[in-house]
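User: For my dataset I need records formatted as: sequence, then C-alpha cells, nothing else. Please produce one.
Assistant:
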Amino acid sequence: MSTDTLLIEIGTEELPPAAAKNLSDTLTKFISAQLSEAGFTLGEVKPYVTPRRLALTISSLSRQQPEQNVERKGPAVKAAYDKNGEPTKAALGFAKSCGVEIQELQTLETDKGAWLYFKSLVPGKSIQQELPEILEQGLNKLPIPRPMRWGSREIEFVRPVHWVTVMYGNEVIPCEIKGISASNHSYGHRFHAPEAIELKHANDYESSLLNAKVIADFSIRQNKIRSLLEECADRYDADLSYGDALLEEVTNLVEWPALIVGEFSEAFLDIPQEALVATMQDAQRYFPMFSKQTGTLLPYFITIANIESSNPDTIKHGNERVIKPRFEDAGFFWNRDKQKTLASRTKDLKGILFEKQLGSVLEKTQRVSGLCTALCQQLNIDDKYATRAASLCKADLVSDMVNEFPKLQGIMGRYYAQNDNEPNQVSTAIEEHYQPLQSGSALPVSIDGKVVALCDRIDTLVGIFATGKKPSGVKDPYALRRAALGVIRISIDGNVDYDLHRLLTVSAESLKDKLDTSSSAREVFDFILERLRGYFVDQGVEPDTFESVLNIKPTRLLDFSDRIQAVQKFRSLPEADSLAAANKRINNILKKAEKLDSNIDSELFSEAAEHELYKQLTSAENMAAPKFESRHYAEALTDLAQLRSPIDTFFDDVMVMDENKNVRNNRIALLAKVNRLFSTVANISLLQN
C-alpha cells in the first residue's frame, strides 16, 4: 500500500500565546488518534505552532484504509418471509441497508434459529475521503478559551482563519475549513516574507517556512530563544531567572526571534525587585537579569522581538519607553504603601470576606494566631513571633502593590514588616506562610514560617469542611487538596513533629460558635491521610507498606513517615516474609479468640517451644522498648526479627487451641504479646509477599 506525508496547516491571526501550544498538541493528538483508529498506518507525527498557525505533518501515512470484512445479522428467517414465501418489509429493508438484492443475502444458522445474514469485503476509504470530517471534528473539539466570530457568518474559532493548507504528498485534499478552501499555499513571516508560498510537496513545509523567516517547530524556536538568552546573560555576567510558562509564552509570540537588550534607570532599583520583576515578566514578557555575584536585579532587561530590524535601537528605545511608566507606578505604590504600617492595615481585612459562614479574613487571621499558640505549645517553643506573624500575614492584601500584583502577596508583606521594624522572624514568617506555592516548590525554612503556614492551611481545611464544601470529583474551589499536601510536606519534609489530630481538634473548637464542627477534625484527618497515600506512592513506597502503618493511624505525620521508612527497611530483611505470614496467622487466631488475657503464666507452659518463644520475646521486648520510645523504629523491628525462628518453631510444635481452656488462653496471650510488639510500629500482617 502506498504512503506519503500529510500536511495540515490552519493559518490565523495571532493566537493567544498562553494557549497556543496546548491547542497545537490537542489537535495533533486528535487527528493522529482518529486516523489510526480508522485503520490508516502512520509514521512520525509532528506538531507545529507559531503565532499565526496551527499545523502538523504525518509521514508515511497510508493512502487508504485496509479492506474491511463487514458482517451483519438481519431479521430472523421466520420474520423475513410471509406465508407465501415472499420477502417482508423487514427483509427488504435489511437488504437495502446492505446495498444488495434480497437474493444476495445468506442464511446464518444458530442454536437460537436461522437469520438473514450479510457478509462482504468492503474496500477501505481513502485519506481524501476520511480526513475532512476528522479535521473538522478535531478543530471543533479544541479547548478554545474564548472563541471568536468574524465577518457576517456564524463561524467560530480561536482567531479568524486566513488560509488552510491540506496536502497529501503533492496533492491538495479538497475541503473547506472554517469557510476557507484548502490549497497548497502557506505564508511566511508577516514582515520579512509576506507573499504566499506555493508548496510542491508536503515534505517541503518546514524548509519552505524557514526560508520565509518562520521557525515552525516550537521546540527548535524555543531552544533558539533559550540560547540567545544564555549568550546574552554571559555577556553581561548575569544570571537569568524565568519559568517555563514565560518561555513558552514568548516562544508563541514570535516566528523569527531576535534578542534586544533594554536599560532602565538604577533609581528604580530602590523599589523591591520582586515588583520590578513582576512588571517585566507579567506585563511585558521581558526577561530580567541578575548579578551573578549578589543575586540582585541589574538595570537591564531582555526582550525577544519578532523581527530582524535594520535599526534595533528603535525597538530598544520603544521598550524602554514602555517600561518606564510601569516602574514609576510601582514606585508610587511602594512609597504610598509604606506610609501605613501593616498593623494599621489589619482592620481593613474586616472588609474582605474569606467565606460567608467563616467570616472575614481578619477573623481568619485571629483564628490562625490562636492555632499558632496551640502548635507552639506542642513544639515547646515561644509563640510570640508566630502569633505576631499570623496577625499580620494577610495585611498586605489591602496594599496598593498587592492589589496591582496579587502574586506578590506575602513578599510585599515581608518588605512592609521590615519597613515597620518588625522582628526578622516575623517578616520572614509572613512571606513563608504561603509556601509551598505549588507541588514541589520551596517550603518554609524558619520554624515560625512553618508554624504559620501549617496553621493557616489547617484553619482553611477545617473551616471549609465544616461548611460542607469539601472537594468532590475534580471540583476543589478552595484548593483543599493542595492545602492538605502542603500540610504533609511542611510536616514531613520540614521536620515539624506535632500531633496533627490534636491541632485539628483545636481548630474545630475555634469554629464551634459558627458551625457544627463535631466531625470536622476526624474528616480532615482522614482527608489528609488520603493525600498522604499519594505522597508516599510518589516516593515509591509500596501500597501495602502504607496500609500497614495506616492501620494503626499514627496522629503525627512525621511519626507516620518514620514508621514507613522502618517498614521499608524491615521488608529487606530475610525474616520479613516469614514474620509477616506469622502475624497474619496470629491475627486470625486473635479474631476468633473468645477472650484476650494479657497475663502470661509461664507455669502453664508444657512445650519447649513455648518456653523458648517467651524467653526470646522477653529479650526482644527489652531491647526494642527504648528504641520504640525514641522512635528508632527500624532498629526496633530489626531486634524483633530475631523472633522468626522461635515463632516458626512454636507453630510447628505447639497446638494453640488446646482442649485445656487455661492452656489455650495462655498460648493465645503469648501470641497476643507478639502481635502487640510488632503493632507498636505497624500491622506487618498486611504486608504482601
